[in-house]
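During the reporting period the student researcher (J.K.) took over the structure-prediction task from the postdoctoral fellow and processed the backlog of single-chain submissions. One of the processed entries is reproduced below for the supervisory committee.
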Amino acid sequence: MHQALTITTVLYPLYKGKFINHPRFLQLVLLGYNTPRPRREDYEGFLERLVRSLEHLGDDGLSLMLYGSFARGDYVPGRSDIDAVLIFPYNFVIPKQTMQEVALAINEALTPKYVPFQVSPLDFGTLRDGRFNSFTYEFKMYFQEEGKVILGPDYREEMECLRVKTGEESAISHNLRKCRKGFLFAEYHIWADYEQFLKDFIRTLNTASSLPKKILLMIDGITTWKKFSQTRKLQRYFPEMNLEPLERIKHLYTHPYELDKLYKQPNQILQFWGSALTFIEELLRAYIARFPAKS
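J.K. obtained the following structure tokens:
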């Protein structure tokens, strides 16, 4: 008797002669297979709900800009993403209560019908400095030509995008965007895909724990292989930094059973996630303040 074909067997059909049955792959969103393809009205309804929920934040300076095929109007419903840039009117450190409001709005907008929404969160500090802006120079011209601001002010003229980034700048930019995006989708993933929720949380912990050595490498050019080994050196450069989130991450990594218990407590995860993300933002703010961009 043949086993029924599932998304798991499509991706990884056999291991040692047996079909793999792992929940990570069972929860993979595959439009048209295990998730209904959204229609044109679903895309429009999603954006209407999202903008309506964020309107009060737009009045306070939050900006939502669309780009790509949806902004141009030549997207394919059920296949294309809605690509967006969400700019928070804060310098480097975004209040987590504000991010939580946006996360709740995204959850409410996605709940009636899933729509593929790809958003890149930015803040004023990284937007204007450019080194940790995940977008490179060609995107600035692209946004000027095809971007469509549908909520809040238009900040495109203030965006600084570097032509070339160092390896560390590129990696930090990528991880910052992923950590923030994960936090913005946390309320949705808690109930829609809890494993993705946990993966995004762990990404933030990993980013926070590895960021100090990346920052120190950019400062003195010395590679450090071991995490958590340079806290004193970090404090010499940035004495204003609160290292409590880093110490807690170190404790959890050296006491993995406590981390296992935390996995089952989403509210506590969200609180710690917010503090770890704030640590990342504060360290980048401190670095940029002490080492301004070269003109």
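The committee noted the following: Residues 1-35 form one domain.
J.K. will present the remaining backlog at the next meeting.
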